[in-house]
UniProtKB/TrEMBL annotation:
This is Adenosylcobinamide-GDP ribazoletransferase. Its main location: membrane. Pathway: Cofactor biosynthesis; adenosylcobalamin biosynthesis; adenosylcobalamin from cob(II)yrinate a,c-diamide: step 7/7. Its cofactor is Mg(2+). It comes from the Bacteria. Pfam families: CobS. InterPro entries: CobS (IPR003805). Keywords: Cell membrane, Cobalamin biosynthesis, Magnesium, Membrane, Transferase, Transmembrane, Transmembrane helix. It is an enzyme of class 2 (transferase). GO terms for molecular function: adenosylcobinamide-GDP ribazoletransferase activity.
Length: 239
């Protein structure tokens, strides 16, 4: 269910879409991030022998294809709504509109450009950095799904929140943090920074619409990936 929900990887297995399975699926969100990061990392590795700029761009494209642009769609809708400077009800209406506006286009373009610039400027360990960055952002979103209020009853965010995923999100987090600490404790710094950025997003979302929606979850994943990549750039220069 985690792979089916967060990616476009073809998993043709029928799974009952109930609250118990929704809650359990959050345990594997970081693993899904690792799978997507592996796809991006492998793409970079294969094309880096031709040109690193090309490899960086294609790595970003591979990740977008892997997710089907799901989170980018949420990013665009969130920016269209939040930067409209309307009241809560109108913001939620704008976010539900399938059409993309100026702020949404700007957000999507800057997101892709920022990731390309960050990836192209890493000197080494790019596959590992992508794996951990995409995992970090999805673990952070698990925390939001488990602990933060939802702004739209009956929506996608409400389904996850109502399923009671906190126990599974915590267990998944403990396993993931243990793995990171085993690899290199310094790699916990980007995870912490990603969670800090997540709290800033939470504050903004509560202020704008009183909680989270599926679109804001998607935007949080995209921004979380950038935050983690940025933190890794600083960490690698430091060590």
């Amino acid at each position: 269910m985690s792979i089916q929900f967060l990616t476009r990887i073809p998993i043709n297995i029928a799974i009952d879409f109930n609250e118990e399975n929704l809650a359990r699926s959050t345990f594997f969100f970081p693993l899904v991030g690792a799978i997507l990061g592996s796809i991006g990392g492998l793409t970079y590795y294969l094309f880096s022998y031709i040109n690193k700029d090309l490899a960086s761009f294609l790595a970003v494209i591979a990740i977008i294809i892997g997710t089907g642009g799901l989170h980018l769609d949420g990013l665009g809708d969130t920016f269209d709504g939040f930067f409209s400077n309307r009241n809560k009800e109108r913001i939620l209406e704008i976010m539900k509109d399938s059409r993309i506006g100026t702020f949404g286009v700007i957000a999507v373009v800057l997101d892709i450009l920022f990731k390309y610039i960050l990836i192209s400027n890493f000197k080494s360990h790019i596959p590992l950095i992508l794996i951990l960055s995409l995992s970090n952002s999805r673990l952070m979103v698990c925390h939001k799904m488990a602990c933060k209020e939802v702004a739209r009853p009956g929506g996608l965010g409400d389904m996850f929140y109502s399923s009671g995923p906190k126990k599974f999100a915590i267990m998944g987090g403990i396993v993931y943090v243990s793995i990171i600490a085993f690899l290199n404790p310094v790699f916990l710094i980007p995870l912490v920074f990603t969670f800090i950025i997540g709290e800033i997003i939470s504050h903004t979302s509560y202020k704008k619409i009183g909680g989270f929606t599926g679109d804001v979850y998607g935007a949080t994943i995209e921004i979380g990936e950038i935050a983690s990549l940025l933190a890794f750039m600083g960490v690698l220069k430091w060590i």
